[in-house]
Design goal:
By secondary structure, this protein is mainly beta. It contains 3 helices and 16 strands. The strands form 5 sheets. A 6-stranded antiparallel beta sheet has the order 6-7-8-15-10-13. Strands 1-2-3 form a 3-stranded antiparallel beta sheet, with no helix packed on it. Helix 2 packs antiparallel against helix 3.
Length: about 230
């Protein structure tokens, strides 16, 4: 995200046999054969289990697969499998305004079966969200235009355009537009849900008009989505 393997060997060179194919990849990859893929679970070690992932089919619908139930099989929830590609145009995405920024949801959890969301965010000079952390999702950024600094582990770091920043869940962070032109970034979250949080906050900011938003309401929405301002 690789060749055939038998039983796990000793030491650090352990490999595992997928249940549905004779070809495997690294733990973040899929091993495909025919019309199915075997995907490794997050668990590693000789007892690791594999669950099935269906390849796309021609019908335009969404199906749910139950993962194989094993002692260390993950995830435990049904897997939402999309059967069609998605093309999302920024020109058609509504603009959400909150925390001094404008965001467009290019991919939502509703579109991706809850696995992933992507936003295109524009931040004015000097602006950025308050420091916060996500309990339920990982987040990563790809700056497109402008100058941005990220605060991670108590230190500000300038990140050039074309770079990437990965922020695992639980990591306190923020960013700010450090230039004098608008900052544009792609923001990715997995699993989805952050886009719903931002949309709900945008409603609170819109209701406030030119005045300050109701921060108690913002805090309550954040708590419902596992986001904590620090």
């Amino acid at each position: 995200m690789a060749g055939p393997s038998g039983a796990a060997s000793s030491g650090s060179s352990r490999r595992f046999r997928p249940r549905t194919t004779d070809r495997i990849g690294p733990p973040t990859d899929r091993a495909c054969s025919g019309e199915r893929c075997a995907v490794p679970s997050r668990a590693d070690g000789p007892d690791a289990e594999w669950f099935l992932w269906a390849l796309p089919v021609s019908s335009h619908r969404m199906r749910t697969l139950e993962p194989e139930r094993g002692r260390r099989t993950m995830p435990e929830e049904p897997i939402q499998v999309l059967d069609t590609a998605i093309v999302s145009l920024a020109s058609e995405a509504p603009v959400l305004r909150a925390f001094g920024a404008e965001s467009q949801v290019l991919l939502s959890g509703e579109q991706t079966g809850g696995r992933y969301a992507m936003l295109l965010e524009t931040t004015p000079p000097g602006m950025g969200p308050p420091p916060h952390k996500h309990d339920g999702e990982d987040e990563w950024f790809y700056p497109l235009e402008g100058e941005v600094e990220f605060l991670v582990a108590g230190e500000w770091k300038r990140v050039p355009v074309g770079s990437a920043v990965f922020l695992p869940r639980g990591c306190v962070h923020t960013f700010r537009n450090a230039g004098d032109t608008p900052l544009r970034q792609l923001i990715h979250v997995s699993p989805a849900g952050f886009e719903v949080f931002f949309a709900r906050c945008a409603e609170v900011f819109a209701a406030a008009g030119d005045g300050p938003p109701e921060m108690e309401r913002i805090g309550a929405i954040a708590a419902e989505h596992g986001i904590e301002f620090v």
